[in-house]
Amino acid sequence: MTEIVIQLAYLFAAFLFITALRALGRPDSARRGMQLAALGMAVAVAATLFHARIVSYEWIAVGAAVGAVAGYPLGMWVPMTAMPQRIALSHAFGALAATLVGVGEYANGFLSGATLARTTVAALGLEVLFGGVTVTGSLIAFGKLQGILPGRPLIFRGQNALNIVLLAVSCCCLVWVIVYPSHVQVFSAMVTLAVLVGVLFVLPVGGADMPVVVSLLNSYAGLAAVATGFAIDNNILIIVGALDGLSGFILAIAMSKAMNRSFTNVLFGAFGSADTNMAVTAAAGGEMTPTTVEDAALRLAYAERVIMVPGYGLAVSQAQHQMRELGDLIEKRGGDVRYAIHPVAGRMPGHMNVLLAEAGVPYDKLIDMDEINERFVETDVAVVVGANDVINPAARTNPASPIFGMPILQVDDAKSVLVLKRGKGRGFSGVENDLFVDPKTSMLFGDARQSLLELGLQVKEA
Ligand code: NAP
User: Fold this and answer.
1) Under-50 pLDDT residues of the chain
2) What is the value of pTM for the model shown?
3) Does the beta carbon of 456 sit less than 6 angstroms from any atom of ligand 1?
C-alpha cells in the first residue's frame, strides 16, 4: 500500500516538474515555475522518506542539516553575476552524490558476497562514469569562473587525442565490469579515469565558453541521476534525471547558437586562447565622444522612442532599479521606452530578464532580440548600459572577428546611441567595439548605477 502511495506521489512530482519547465519558458510565469519545481521536489523528498529501504533517519537529518547550512548562503548571498560558478558548484555536489551512491551500491553488493546482476553493474558503471566526469569537470569550471584557476584555455599538445583515448579506455572498463562484475580493480580504474577525464575535458575550454560547458555538465549530472534511478530502482530519479539531462543539453546548444559557436568548437576549439588573434581583429581606431549627464539627460527627456540595452555591466553595478526608474521618468514625459533582451547578455541565459523583472519592468516591455532589432531604425536614443559584445557591429561586418556571425542587438541602426560604461574596457570576448567610436555614439563614463541615478535626477528637472 505504502509503495503505491509513494509511486503516486512520484507521478504527481513528475507532473509538477514538467509543468514547472513549461512555466519557466516565459518571464511572466517563471517565478511560478520555480515555485512548482520546489513543490515537486518537496513532494518527491517527502515520499522517499516513507521508503522501506531507509535504514537511518538520523543520518538523513544530519545530511539535510548540513545541506541547508551550505545551501542557504549559496542561494541567498551569491550575487547574480556569480551564478554560473554557483551552478557549477551545485552540479559538482549533485554528481558527487550520484558517484558516491554508485560506488557505495557496488561496494555493498561486492562485500555482501551476493552476485551483482550485470544490469545493475551497467547502471552503476554509467552512474560513476557520468558522475565522476561531472564532479571534477564542474570543479574546474567553478575554479575558472571564480578566478581561482586561469580563465584562459590550458592546452598541451595531443590533448584532444589523450582525452579521447582516456574516454575510450574508461568505456572499455565499463564493458569489462559488466561482463565480470566482481573485478573491483577495473571498477576502481573506471572511477579514477572518469575523474581524470573531467579535469582534462574542461581545462582546454576558455572562460568565455564556460557557461556552455556548465550546461553540458548539467546534462551529464542528469544522466548520472538517471543511471542512479535504474541502479537503486527509483522512478523519480529516472524522470528528474532525464528532464535535467535533456534540458541541460538543449540549453548548451541554445547558448552555442546565440554565440554563433558550434558545439565541437566550444569543446575542442579553445576559444579565446590567442589574445594576438583578437588584437589583429580589433578594428576600432577612432576617438570616443564623451558626453555629460546634463547633455545626455536633455536628449532622453525629449526623445520619443528610447530603447534600453542592458548588458553584463548593468548586472555588475546592480543598476536594474535605476534603469527602470529612468525608463519610468522618460515615459512620464511622453516617451516610449522598451528594453532589449539579448539571449546571452550578462553571464547566463535569461540574466537580463531576471534582473529587469526583479526591478519591476513590465514583461511586455522586455523585447527579445529578433523583435526589437526591427525597432532600432525608428529609435531616437538607444541607451546601452554595460553591454559590449552583444552590440558589437563587428559580429556582422568583420569576418575576421572572433565573434563574427554572433547575432547581435542592432543598436547601430538607432538615430543616436548613448553608452554608459566605466571606461574603455573590452567585452567578455576581448574584442574592440567600433560602435563606441561611431560619430552618433556618445559615451557617458562612470559606474552604471551612478550614471543612471544622475540621469534620472536630471531628466526629472528637464
Ligand atoms: P560584455 O561583453 O561582457 O561587456 C560588459 C561591459 O560592461 C564591459 O565592456 C565593461 O566596460 C562594462 N562594465 C563592467 N562593469 C561596469 C559597471 N559597473 N558599470 C558600467 N559598465 C560596466 O557584456 P555583454 O554585452 O552583456 O556580453 C556578454 C558576453 O558574455 C558575451 O560575449 C557572451 O557571449 C558572453 N557569455 C554570455 C553567456 C550567457 O549565458 N549570458 C554565457 C557565456 C558567455 P568597462 O570596463 O569599460 O566598464
Assistant:
1) 271-283
2) 0.80
3) no
